[in-house]
Amino acid sequence: MPTGSVATPDHPEVAAFISLIRQTYESLGREVDLSPANERVNSLLRTFVDAVLHVSSVHATASILENPDVRNIRKPMLEKLSHAEYLMERYFAQQFGAQCPLTASDLDQFWYRTCYRNLVDAEVTAMASVLRSGSALSGKIAFVGSGPLPLTAIDMHFATGADVLCIDSDADAVRLSRQMIANMGLQHKIGVHRHAGETFDYAGCDVVMVASLVPEKDSVVRRIQATAPDAAIGVRSVRGLKALLYEPVNEHAFDDLGLRHVSSSKDSSETINTTHFLRPAPYGATLPPGKAAATSGARTPTPSPEALPA
């Protein structure tokens, strides 16, 4: 469908996609095992994610997300997708943990490797306009909610040369990450800490990244401000129809905390997430009124049609 065309709920593309959402949700609901050991789940998720990434029309996106059935099943579907993602990352972390030595090229075995790497490339590009010095990082990068498969940390280290801190409260995720990083010989450059993001000490960090699946993001951001007040903060979000894969975060959700949106990573069909980079607003600056999200965890509600980018 051309980007400028008008899509109604009964348009063939819209109707077909809504049907796919229903079928995917119902099929996932019938499965007990959402791990990569279940080929039916693998096929469902491949088809669904690919379809989401290739709907380019803003009008189709709005019609799909505003459909009553889609609105009703989006939240429970996100929970299933979140669980499936964790199981997938744990599966590959176990595989990589058993490979020693583990090389950068070995990581290409991961199904979504290109997507993950493209996101970090886009984040590093956006980060250049966020760092006050405009030069190389002088401190560390922290990644909150790093999970069992620390690809972001590894790619960030390779792309910037900076030391990286992985932070996750899940013991299994921490154990798997440490093993994988040790197998690559990067344990002196990438640390893994079992800690809640809301209480971690971020002192010495130039940039703190917050993963999409981290709950209560406002509490994490407040802790970053308290312990690393000059750090740039990157909050992962999604645009458009990708709200079917993760909860979106408005770029002005943290205005009330004295932060200003500076830049966002480029969105494309080659990535799922978009990352909003925030900086402390200059002293005495007036923040845009009425833009801060009031929802728990600084999450936005289901996007309205007029708020959806292409």
Brief descriptors of the model:
single chain; 310 residues; alpha/beta; seven-stranded mixed sheet; 8 helices; 7 strands; disordered N terminus; disordered C terminus
Report what the structure shows.
Helices cover 39% and strands 13% of the residues. With 310 residues, the chain is of the alpha/beta class. Strands 3-2-1-4-5-7-6 form a 7-stranded mixed β-sheet, sandwiched between helices. Strand 2 (164-168), helix 7 (171-183) and strand 3 (190-194) form a beta-alpha-beta unit. Helix 1 crosses helix 3, helix 1 (12-30) crosses helix 4 (68-97) and helix 4 (68-97) packs across helix 7. Residues 1-6 and 283-310 have low confidence and may be disordered.
Low-confidence segments, given as residue ranges, are 1-6, 283-310
What's the total number of strands?
7
Percent of sequence in beta strands = 5-15%
Give the structural class. Answer: alpha/beta
Could you say which overall geometry the principal axes of the C-alpha atoms support? Answer: globular
Secondary structure topology:
Blueprint (H helix, E strand, L loop, with lengths): L11 H19 L8 H15 L4 H8 L2 H30 L15 H15 L12 E5 L6 H10 L3 E5 L2 H13 L6 E5 L10 E6 L6 H11 L4 E6 L21 E6 L9 E7 L30
Parallel strand pairs: 1-2, 1-4, 2-3, 4-5
Antiparallel strand pairs: 5-7, 6-7
Helix pairs in contact: 1-2, 1-3, 1-4, 4-7, 5-6
